[in-house]
Specification:
single chain, 203 residues, alpha/beta, Rossmann fold, 6-stranded parallel β-sheet, 6 helices, 47% helix
Length: 203
């Protein structure tokens, strides 16, 4: 059974992706902070719950490395309530960068070696479009994630690892599940789904 790890799985975008994968027979490990939501996902879809905070960097990286997922979906997005840059606290900036950027890089680094060794794997990185971002910190993270996805795709080219940035878009987020399945099909996973490309950076 193909294994997927989905971060931010208890919020609407991540939950839509995780449940769609589970319905198609994937072994889904859902990482999030909401234990009640995780229990619901386990009961309704057989998803394996991983209740933890992405800011617990060492623990999360160790868990991700041990899982050796075939696919890693980064769907954890968390923003400060304050939109104005000068109104942000230092803790707001640190949180936004840690969850939206640093955690993405650290978990990717933890699971990438096993994917390269197998010659097969996929990273799907959910982010805001720059034009949809409402604040300086959101736009900074959106630009950084796009740059990270492009640079990582170049570095792993030829290894069998696929990298794709997926646009968050507007709610409802149920469409994200179908988009993820189609993107994985395009990279050689679940080949029965229709090919779809948007912001794909290749292998």
């Amino acid at each position: 059974m193909t294994k997927a790890l989905v971060t931010g799985a208890t919020r609407a975008p991540g939950r839509a992706i995780a449940t769609s994968l589970a319905r198609e027979g994937w072994e889904v490990h859902a990482l999030g902070r909401d234990r009640i939501a995780l229990d619901e996902m386990r009961g309704e879809h057989g998803i394996v719950p991983l209740a933890m905070d992405l800011t617990d960097r060492e623990y999360v990286s160790a868990v991700a490395e041990g899982l050796k997922p075939d696919v890693l979906v980064h769907a954890a997005l968390r923003w400060p309530k304050e939109a104005q840059f000068l109104g942000l606290l230092e803790a707001d900036i640190d949180m936004a960068l840690e969850v939206n950027l640093s955690a993405t890089m650290h978990i990717t680094r933890a699971v990438l070696p096993s994917m390269i060794e197998r010659g097969r794997g996929a990273f799907l990185i959910l982010s805001l479009e720059y034009s949809d971002a409402k604040s300086v910190i959101e736009r900074a993270a959106a630009g950084a994630l796009d740059g990270f996805a492009r640079a990582l795709a170049e570095e792993v080219r030829g290894t069998g690892v696929f990298v794709h940035r997926l646009s968050l878009g507007q709610p409802p987020f149920e469409r994200l599940g179908s988009e993820v399945l189609a993107l994985l099909s395009a990279s050689g996973f679940q080949s029965q789904f229709i090919k779809h490309q948007e912001h794909g950076y290749g292998t």
